[in-house]
Amino acid sequence: xxxSVTTELPSEAVSLLSGDASPARLGTVxxxxxxxxxxxxxxxxxxxxxxxVVTPGAVRLAVDQRSTTARNIEERRSVTLVLVxxxxxxxxxxxxxxxxxxxxxxxxxxxxxxxxDVEVREVRLDEELGAWISTGALxxxxxxxxxxxxxxxxxxxALRSP
Length: 162
Description:
Layout: E1 4-6, H1 11-16, E2 30-35, E3 41-46, E4 51-55, E5 58-64, H2 68-76, E6 78-85, E7 88-103, E8 113-125, H3 145-160
Antiparallel strand pairs: 1-8, 2-3, 2-6, 4-5, 5-8, 6-7, 7-8
């Protein structure tokens, strides 16, 4: 099936990025792309614990406050989330805005993070007849599952704040 275009994230993406600190989501990598000063894509890798779908058309991210990603969003606003998971392949394009919400460093996150509000403008669902994604990108971390989930809970609390 060809690529389809919509303005809202599909239910599978909403579920993945619902803010539920589920052990089943640990290790999932979500690439987030911004545009650098030279016009090239810049990639940041986030976890589902660092992203929250507020509505199917609005997403919040936690990114390193000092990062190139934060600077790119501040200067150019373009943000693309790439969700490549079993049975789901979609690209959500939107406009981001840095907020005043800062998440202080912690044991798993050794840097201050800033909340980014993203207004979703376009979602492309990519499918090919007779083929599917069998696994997404995965990460590991040298902390316990409990420490990782506690980090996610701390970040999600900040992402949910007004």
